[in-house]
Protein backbone atom coordinates (compact mmCIF):
# COMPACT_ATOMS: atom_id res chain seq x y z
CA UNK A 1 0.00 0.00 0.00
CA UNK A 2 1.27 3.47 -0.93
CA UNK A 3 2.08 5.79 1.95
CA UNK A 4 -0.09 8.88 1.69
CA UNK A 5 1.87 12.09 2.09
CA UNK A 6 0.28 14.64 4.41
CA UNK A 7 1.64 18.14 4.88
CA UNK A 8 1.37 20.51 7.82
CA UNK A 9 2.02 24.23 7.45
CA UNK A 10 1.70 26.99 10.02
CA UNK A 11 -2.08 27.28 9.50
CA UNK A 12 -3.10 24.39 7.25
CA UNK A 13 -3.10 20.64 6.82
CA UNK A 14 -2.99 19.04 3.37
CA UNK A 15 -4.41 15.54 3.69
CA UNK A 16 -6.33 12.72 2.04
CA UNK A 17 -9.99 13.40 1.35
CA UNK A 18 -12.79 12.30 3.70
CA UNK A 19 -16.48 11.70 3.00
CA UNK A 20 -17.46 14.72 5.12
CA UNK A 21 -15.48 16.97 2.71
CA UNK A 22 -17.84 16.14 -0.17
CA UNK A 23 -20.86 18.34 0.71
CA UNK A 24 -18.61 21.34 1.35
CA UNK A 25 -16.69 20.67 -1.87
CA UNK A 26 -19.99 20.46 -3.76
CA UNK A 27 -21.01 23.90 -2.45
CA UNK A 28 -17.62 25.30 -3.44
CA UNK A 29 -17.96 23.85 -6.97
CA UNK A 30 -21.52 25.20 -7.29
CA UNK A 31 -20.41 28.76 -6.46
CA UNK A 32 -20.30 30.82 -9.70
CA UNK A 33 -17.69 33.16 -8.18
CA UNK A 34 -15.30 30.27 -7.38
CA UNK A 35 -15.95 28.70 -10.78
CA UNK A 36 -15.67 31.96 -12.76
CA UNK A 37 -12.62 30.71 -14.69
CA UNK A 38 -14.06 27.26 -15.45
CA UNK A 39 -16.58 26.44 -18.18
CA UNK A 40 -19.40 25.94 -15.67
CA UNK A 41 -20.29 25.18 -12.08
CA UNK A 42 -20.43 21.51 -11.10
CA UNK A 43 -23.46 19.56 -9.98
CA UNK A 44 -23.23 17.68 -6.70
CA UNK A 45 -22.75 14.44 -8.66
CA UNK A 46 -19.96 15.94 -10.79
CA UNK A 47 -18.27 17.38 -7.71
CA UNK A 48 -18.42 14.06 -5.86
CA UNK A 49 -17.02 12.23 -8.89
CA UNK A 50 -14.15 14.72 -9.08
CA UNK A 51 -13.37 14.34 -5.36
CA UNK A 52 -13.49 10.55 -5.61
CA UNK A 53 -11.11 10.60 -8.60
CA UNK A 54 -8.70 12.87 -6.69
CA UNK A 55 -8.94 10.68 -3.58
CA UNK A 56 -8.23 7.56 -5.65
CA UNK A 57 -5.23 9.21 -7.28
CA UNK A 58 -3.77 10.11 -3.87
CA UNK A 59 -4.39 6.57 -2.63
CA UNK A 60 -2.47 5.18 -5.63
CA UNK A 61 0.47 7.62 -5.70
CA UNK A 62 0.55 9.10 -2.19
CA UNK A 63 0.17 12.63 -3.53
CA UNK A 64 -2.22 14.75 -5.58
CA UNK A 65 -4.72 17.53 -5.08
CA UNK A 66 -4.86 17.25 -1.30
CA UNK A 67 -7.88 18.31 0.74
CA UNK A 68 -6.93 21.42 2.73
CA UNK A 69 -8.19 22.12 6.23
CA UNK A 70 -7.45 24.94 8.62
CA UNK A 71 -5.60 23.55 11.62
CA UNK A 72 -7.27 25.87 14.14
CA UNK A 73 -10.83 24.65 13.51
CA UNK A 74 -10.43 21.64 11.14
CA UNK A 75 -12.62 23.36 8.49
CA UNK A 76 -12.23 21.96 4.96
CA UNK A 77 -11.49 24.93 2.69
CA UNK A 78 -10.76 23.35 -0.71
CA UNK A 79 -7.82 21.64 -2.40
CA UNK A 80 -4.21 22.42 -3.22
CA UNK A 81 -1.63 20.13 -4.69
CA UNK A 82 -0.08 18.32 -7.58
CA UNK A 83 -1.56 16.57 -10.58
CA UNK A 84 -0.49 14.86 -13.77
CA UNK A 85 -2.91 15.99 -16.49
CA UNK A 86 -4.27 13.08 -18.51
CA UNK A 87 -5.16 15.19 -21.55
CA UNK A 88 -2.88 16.71 -24.20
CA UNK A 89 -1.28 20.03 -23.37
CA UNK A 90 1.72 21.70 -24.99
CA UNK A 91 3.76 20.64 -21.94
CA UNK A 92 2.54 17.06 -21.31
CA UNK A 93 3.74 14.93 -19.79
CA UNK A 94 4.03 17.25 -16.81
CA UNK A 95 3.18 17.77 -13.17
CA UNK A 96 1.01 20.77 -12.44
CA UNK A 97 0.35 22.59 -9.21
CA UNK A 98 -3.17 23.88 -8.66
CA UNK A 99 -5.73 25.01 -6.12
CA UNK A 100 -9.40 25.71 -5.59
CA UNK A 101 -10.56 27.27 -2.34
CA UNK A 102 -13.95 28.40 -1.08
CA UNK A 103 -14.42 32.14 -1.64
CA UNK A 104 -14.63 32.99 2.05
CA UNK A 105 -11.01 31.84 2.43
CA UNK A 106 -9.60 33.97 -0.38
CA UNK A 107 -7.22 36.81 0.41
CA UNK A 108 -5.62 35.15 3.44
CA UNK A 109 -2.58 33.66 1.72
CA UNK A 110 -3.84 30.08 2.13
CA UNK A 111 -3.36 29.09 -1.52
CA UNK A 112 0.22 30.38 -1.53
CA UNK A 113 1.05 28.81 1.85
CA UNK A 114 -0.30 25.42 0.85
CA UNK A 115 1.20 25.53 -2.65
CA UNK A 116 4.66 26.38 -1.28
CA UNK A 117 4.42 23.33 0.99
CA UNK A 118 3.31 21.19 -1.96
CA UNK A 119 6.33 22.43 -3.93
CA UNK A 120 8.65 21.31 -1.12
CA UNK A 121 7.18 17.82 -1.46
CA UNK A 122 7.37 17.97 -5.27
CA UNK A 123 11.03 18.90 -5.37
CA UNK A 124 12.45 17.38 -2.17
CA UNK A 125 10.45 14.17 -1.68
CA UNK A 126 9.23 13.33 -5.17
CA UNK A 127 12.29 14.76 -6.95
CA UNK A 128 10.41 16.36 -9.83
CA UNK A 129 12.60 18.51 -12.09
CA UNK A 130 9.92 21.11 -12.80
CA UNK A 131 6.35 22.09 -11.97
CA UNK A 132 3.92 23.90 -14.25
CA UNK A 133 0.72 25.78 -13.63
CA UNK A 134 -1.80 27.24 -16.02
CA UNK A 135 -5.01 29.19 -15.93
CA UNK A 136 -7.23 31.33 -18.06
CA UNK A 137 -5.37 34.48 -19.13
CA UNK A 138 -7.91 36.63 -17.29
CA UNK A 139 -7.51 34.83 -13.92
CA UNK A 140 -5.36 37.46 -12.23
CA UNK A 141 -5.73 35.98 -8.72
CA UNK A 142 -4.30 32.58 -9.67
CA UNK A 143 -1.60 34.20 -11.76
CA UNK A 144 -0.59 36.26 -8.71
CA UNK A 145 -0.27 33.06 -6.65
CA UNK A 146 1.91 31.53 -9.38
CA UNK A 147 4.17 34.58 -9.30
CA UNK A 148 4.37 34.52 -5.47
CA UNK A 149 5.54 30.92 -5.82
CA UNK A 150 8.43 32.11 -8.00
CA UNK A 151 6.96 30.62 -11.16
CA UNK A 152 7.84 32.21 -14.50
CA UNK A 153 5.34 33.14 -17.19
CA UNK A 154 6.68 31.18 -20.15
CA UNK A 155 4.98 33.53 -22.65
CA UNK A 156 3.60 30.40 -24.32
CA UNK A 157 -0.15 30.86 -24.12
CA UNK A 158 -2.20 27.96 -25.44
CA UNK A 159 -5.77 26.94 -26.18
CA UNK A 160 -6.94 24.64 -23.38
CA UNK A 161 -8.34 21.48 -25.01
CA UNK A 162 -11.08 20.99 -22.37
CA UNK A 163 -12.51 24.50 -22.78
CA UNK A 164 -15.03 25.06 -25.60
CA UNK A 165 -13.55 26.74 -28.67
CA UNK A 166 -15.79 29.81 -28.50
CA UNK A 167 -15.18 30.43 -24.78
CA UNK A 168 -13.28 33.54 -23.62
CA UNK A 169 -11.65 31.22 -21.05
CA UNK A 170 -10.01 28.97 -23.66
CA UNK A 171 -6.73 30.91 -23.90
CA UNK A 172 -4.49 29.85 -21.00
CA UNK A 173 -1.23 31.24 -19.71
CA UNK A 174 1.55 28.80 -18.81
CA UNK A 175 3.83 29.23 -15.80
CA UNK A 176 6.76 27.01 -14.87
CA UNK A 177 9.41 26.65 -12.20
CA UNK A 178 12.42 24.37 -12.39
CA UNK A 179 13.83 22.66 -9.32
CA UNK A 180 17.17 24.48 -9.54
CA UNK A 181 15.42 27.89 -9.74
CA UNK A 182 13.17 27.00 -6.79
CA UNK A 183 16.16 25.82 -4.73
CA UNK A 184 18.09 29.04 -5.53
CA UNK A 185 15.27 31.19 -4.22
List keywords for this structure.
185 residues, alpha+beta, five-stranded antiparallel sheet, 9 strands, 31% helix, globular
Oligomer: single chain
Radius of gyration (CA) equals: 16 Å
Total beta strand runs = 9
The coarse silhouette is globular
| Fraction of helical residues | 25-40%
**Quick one: CATH class?**
Alpha Beta
Distance between the termini: 35 Å
Low-confidence stretches: none
CATH architecture grouping? 3-Layer(aba) Sandwich
- Find the CATH superfamily: Gcn5-related N-acetyltransferase (GNAT)
CATH topology: Aminopeptidase
In round numbers, the mean pLDDT is 96
Range of strand content: 15-25%
H/E series, N to C? EEHHEEEHEHEEEH
Short description:
With 185 residues, this protein is of the alpha+beta class. The chain has helices at 22-30, 44-61, 110-125, 140-148, 179-184; strands at 7-8, 12-15, 65-70, 76-83, 96-101, 130-136, 152-153, 158-159, 171-178.
What does this protein structure show overall?
The protein has 185 residues and is an alpha+beta fold. It has one domain (7-184): Aminopeptidase (3-Layer(aba) Sandwich), CATH 3.40.630.30. The protein is built from five helices and nine strands, in the order ββααβββαβαβββα. It has helices at 22-30, 44-61, 110-125, 140-148, 179-184, and strands at 7-8, 12-15, 65-70, 76-83, 96-101, 130-136, 152-153, 158-159, 171-178. Strands 1-2-3-4-5 form a five-stranded antiparallel beta sheet, with helices on both faces. It is globular and about 40 Å long. It starts with 6 loop residues before the first strand and ends with a helix.
Amino acid sequence: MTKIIEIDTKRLKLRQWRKDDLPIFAKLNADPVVMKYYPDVLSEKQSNEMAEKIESSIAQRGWGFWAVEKTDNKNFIGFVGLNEPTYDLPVTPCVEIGWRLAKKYWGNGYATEAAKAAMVVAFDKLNFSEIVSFTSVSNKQSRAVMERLGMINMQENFEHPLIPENSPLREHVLYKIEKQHWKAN
